[in-house]
Amino acid sequence: MHNAAFDALDMRWRYAAMPVEPDRLPEAVTRIRGEDYTGANVTVPHKETIVPLLDGLTPVAEAIGAVNTLVKRNGKLIGHNTDAAGLLADLAAHGIGLSHRSVLVLGAGGAARAVVAGCAGVSAKIRVVARRRTQAESLRRIAPVDVFDWTPLGLMQASDDCALIVNATPIGMSPHVDASPWIDGTPFPLEAFVYDLVYNPAETLLVRQARAAGLRAATGLGMLVEQGALAFELWTGNTAPREVMRRAAEQALMIADF
Ligand code: NAP
Question: Does residue 65 have its Cβ closer than 6 Å to ligand 1?
Answer without folding.
Answer: no
